[in-house]
Each structure stands twice: as structure tokens, then as C-alpha cells.
User: Fold Peptidase M10 metallopeptidase domain-containing protein from Lentilactobacillus parafarraginis F0439.
Amino acid sequence: MTKKSLIAAVLASLTFATALPATFLSSPAQPTYASSAKAAAGSTVARAVKKTGDLNPSSSVQHFSKATYTKYSAYFDKQYNVDRMSKSSVFTKHRATVYTPSSQLRGYLAASMKTWNKSLGSTVFATGTKSHHTITVNFGTGGKDASEWDGLYKTNKLYVNKRHFYSPSYMLTVLQAISGHKVSAPKTAADKAAYEKYYMGFWEATITHELGHSLGLDHTPYQDDIMYAQSGDSSNSIKYSWTSSKAGNGTVAALTNVLSTRDVNRAKLTKLLGYW
Ligand SMILES: [Zn+2]
Assistant:
């Protein structure tokens, strides 16, 4: 893909993607626990899981009792690539308070928090203060592994790779990786504006991705998911390994900062599992 057609494709996907949140908003049904205190039979749970798409815990697995989610948590973890990733004090009444001491990151963080809050229909991430917060967002250098990540979430700390954030050429590398072709530095005003838009979308999406980890979401191979990663290693709570991406609906969440229905369903499931 040439740079121009990449821009066209991304813009087209942006237009398409902006139509999505309205659907989420018009159906703000939050998962609620069934009244039964007993755990469902394993075969019932397996049958419900079978009805769902790959890594997409849609409605058929969102109506079980708390006892069912507790009993089969390891099974749900593995089927949908989820796991508890925050320490239990991060979320109180399904809400975390997030603070960044960085004025550079504040705007990006606000956009990322809004993305989750809008899609989930409640204030999952609230703005904290220096003295009152449960998640800290700041720049990190990541030591010698810094080249391997853009963002990182650990226990209750979220890091953004400072070197990549301030690199004048890193975004070109990202666009090149996504398009599969060489992308040259923007020269015209229009190209510069498009580049700026990608840059902002990319760093917002990076923080949104890391906040997804705080909710207990691990990676998927789908490029339209905010939780997309280029590769995945089969481990205890990962459904399968992958080394190449799957297109999904054709949008690139890493540039648009828009959640897929899969992202949202997975977050609803991790709420039911008690991870946030
Ligand atoms: Zn990640």
C-alpha cells in the first residue's frame, strides 16, 4: 500500500469506526449476575462458550451466576485470553482513579479513559489527584527492552515509552509496519496534518491498550481490537499462539483508538469475573 492509499484506508476506517460507539451507547446494558447462587454445570458453560465467536465473550456467556464465574474462572481466562492483571486495590466499586504527573501525557490519557468509559457506559476510569489515585501513568524508559514496547502495565503502574514518544521517526516506523511499505516523512501541510492525527491516535490507543490490561484483558491477534498484538505466546491463560495478525473488520485500532465489540465484551466478562 502506498502512503496515500494508507491514509485513505485509515481515514475510511476512521469514518467507519466512529459509527461504532453509538451502537454501544444505545445499548448500555451492563452485565448483571443471575440471582442463582449455584454454579452452572460445566457442560452448560462449555455449550455457551461454543456459541461465541473467537475470543469474543458475547451475550451467551454474560448471564451466569457469580458462583459460575468463580468456579470456571480459569476456563474463561483461557477461552478469552483474560486474567487478573491489577492488584485488588486498584478498582473499588468497579472504578479506578488514574493520575499522571506528566502534562505531556494528560490529554492522551483523558482521551483513553473516555474511550473505555463511553464504551462500557460508566465511569470505570476517573481522574485522580496526586494524593488520591490508584493507577499512575508516566513515561518509562524500560531499560534495554525499551525498543520492544510502546506502553506497559504492571500491577497499578502504566508506562509510556519516552524514547518512542519523542522520536521524530518512530511514527513512520509504525505506519510502515501497518502498511507493509516504506513511508516517507510528511512534507506537505496535508500530509503533516494526517501524520499528526496518526501520532495522536497511536499514543491514545497505546494508553487505551494498557488500561485494557488493567481490566484484565490480554492480547488478541485481531487488528481491529485495541488489545491486538503482533504475536502471542501460548501460556496458561492464552487460547492459542499466533505469529501473524487477523484483519477483523478491517480497521486498525492502534491508529484510531476505537474499541471493537470484542474488546468491550471481554471487558464485560472480566468485570463478571471480578477482575475490576
Ligand atoms: Zn499489551
Remarks:
- The longest helix spans residues 189-214.
- The CA atoms of residues 20 and 260 lie 8 Å apart.
- The longest strand covers residues 135-140.
- Strands lie at 96-99, 125-127, 135-140, 151-154, 157-161.
